[in-house]
Design a protein that fits this description.
This protein is 41% helix and 16% strand. The protein has 211 residues and is α/β, with parallel strands linked by helices. Helix 2 crosses helix 6 and helix 3 crosses helix 4.
Length: 211
Amino acid sequence: MSDRTLETHPITLSSPHPLTSSSSLIAGVDEVGRGCLFGPVVAAAVILPDRAVTELVVAGLKDSKKLTSVGRKRFAEQIQAVAIDYKIGFARVEEIDRLNIFHGSLLAMKRAVMKLKVQPDLCLVDGKWPIPNLPIEQQTLIKGDEISPAIAAASIIAKVWRDDLIMRFALKYPEYDLAANKGYGTARHLQALQKHGPSRLHRRSFSPCRV
């Protein structure tokens, strides 16, 4: 299938699906947790109808990193209610350590797309790198989560799902302050690694976890 990479700065969220036909089924694809020390890398693939895209944009849809936790959850509920289809994919810690985080992230995104029950005509993939061996046409968008509503929706779904997962792990591993850091390498997290060592869900291929 053809893969295209585009610089996206001329495009804004006011366009339902940039650079695509309005009659096409478009899946936005994004991942979260790539820089974390703990837990899986998680991706989402989301197909939205154009009508819902317009409503979400008017409501303030944006990249998950620019929303509060409450805002992300509110949008996640809206997206799930109106989506034609959405699915989560992830790569486990063991896979990240074996493959590296770059390939683990691409694997998570591929799994999310391949789990969709409705096959899209095109996948808009956040970032520079296409998903290997994807049997669906794809278009990579640099900073796509900032300018594509479909990718922004995927980033929100993936972020909320992963945060909920990490909150459950936080009950099992309270010493790492996961409820606050969500697996990222904060000062308290790094101190806990020095004191307690890594858990089985830490990424041993990441240097701070090699203690």
